[in-house]
Every structure is written in structure tokens, then in C-alpha cells.
Amino acid sequence: MKALLIAGAVFAATVVSTGVQADDDCYEPVANWRPKSQLLQYLQSSGWQVMRIKVDDGCYEVEGVNPAGQRVEATFSPSTFESMGQEYEGDDDDEENEHERLAPSVDPQTSTPAQPPANSLINARPKVSVQ
Amino acid sequence: MNQLMTNDNAQPRHGSAIRRLFLMALLLVPALAVSMPASAREVTFSAELKPYYGDGAYLALYVTDDKGQYQGTLWVAGGKSKYYRHLRQWARGSNLSRSEYDGLTGASVQSGRTLNVTVDLADKLFDGGYQVRIDSAVEDLRDAPSDVVVPLTRDGAGTPVSGRGYVKSLRYDFK
């Protein structure tokens, strides 16, 4: 019985830890964080062109051009500088964001494909503009 | 013979019934055409943002009932879905289900600008106890759930309502 309970606990711990690993956020104690300037130095020495470093969801988020020449938004652990992931320009999720960064006042209708919403309130894409 | 005569007489009567139906249909078509626009209204929601120091604001424009229960999304401003959870009340109501906002998203809105969203809304939503709300959030700044709440009434059109977060005011106008 005890063995069964231990096995259950181990299984639950595995499931929980898998969930945490799947998360994009960083959970490192602030006391262990290394300064942005060290990350900047590290990235520049690795061939990066860094445009911006900011804190997002507990990680360092870097906007810049990676050594392969791709414009990316990359996430790094604030204590180990381990890469947590990169989003490339042109990623589905990033297309609108790219539009937003380059031309915030342009009508977003022109940048996104018109998709009929599966929404009970409206049956067509709204007309949207920003002044 | 008698039967034949009856049939002969029935033919013209059948023809006049068709004519009558046709005339009724002709009368009904314009009546329907007039009544259809009355079931939906073209409404433009205009949300003006306050001047603040920060990145573009993420906004969710959505409809609730009078108890604040989520009914549906009209528009989400902000390109990255990973930040949508900061639009807290909308996120709770919509469960962040993609089908709730697919095709209804665009760029975030910069400080001081005005977002205009024009939609056809069912007439029954007006004076039916429904509300339009905006949740707003700006990176590295505080989230503002229910930044502004506007009851949907016919008389309320054209009247700006002040927000308590990043939205300076929200108003709606009929076409």
C-alpha cells in the first residue's frame, strides 16, 4: 500500500513538473538574477545584435538579431542565461505584433486575414480603425 | 361527366389561388426588407485612451449581461495571445477559447489614440440589460479589468463614459 502511495506521489510530481516545464514563464528567485548588462555582454560576444532587453513573465526577453541573422524575440533565464525559446519574425503569433511595432496607427484590417468569427454576437469581422 | 365538369371548374380556382399567393408574396417581400434592418443595428464603439507612458495597450471589447456574465467578444486589440490573460475578466468569461476571438483581433492601441470598432449588433441587446465592457492592460503596468462599463441603451448612444484605467472614454453611436 505504502509503495502504491509513493508511486502515486512520484507520478503526480512528474505530471506537475512537466506542466511547469511546458510553461513559458521563469520562476527563479530574484536574488539569483544576474544584471541585464551581463546578458547584453554575453549576447554581443555570441554574435547577437541586441535592440532591447526587458523583463517579461520572470524572464529576460530580448529583441534583436540572432547570430544566424534572424530577427527574433528570445527569452532567457535571468540567472543562468539559458535560452528559454525564440519567436521568429513571421511566426503566426507574432505577425500582428510586428505590424503593431512598425505601424501602430494603420488599420489592422489590412494586416490580418479576414476570418469569420465563430461568435454568437456578430457574424462578420468588424470594421476597425485607430485614429 | 359531372366529375369532369367539377375538375374543369377546379382548374381556374387553383390558378387564382396561385395568383393570390404570388400577390401576397409580392407584398411580403418589401415588408420583410423593411423589418430586417430593425433586427440589427450598425454601431460604432469609440474608445479613446488616456495619455500614459508605456507600450501599446491590450484591450478586450466585449458584451456582458447586467450581472457581468460574459456574452461574447467584439474585438481584442493586441497581437500576442500570451498576454490575453492580463485582460482578466474577459479571459475568465471567454476561457481564452480561441473560437471566441478568432478573426476578432488586431494591433494594440498606443497611448492617446482612439480605437473605433463598427459592428452589426442585434437590436435586442439595446435596453435589454446588456453592457459593453473594456478590459485593458499595458506591459509592465497595472491591469485594468472592467476599465469602462457602458450599459447598452438606445438613449445612451453618443454619450461618452469615463474609464478608470487606460481608457479615457468609451462611447457608441448608431449609423
Automatic annotation (TrEMBL), chain A:
Keywords: Signal. Residues 9-84 form the PepSY domain. Residues 1-22 form the signal peptide. InterPro entries: PepSY. Residues 71-131 are annotated as: Disordered. Transmembrane segments: none annotated. This is PepSY domain-containing protein.
TrEMBL record, chain B:
Residues 1-40 form the signal peptide. Keywords: Signal. InterPro entries: DUF2271 (IPR014469). The keyword Signal applies. It comes from the Bacteria. It holds the Pfam family DUF2271. This is Tat pathway signal protein. It comes from Marinobacter santoriniensis NKSG1.
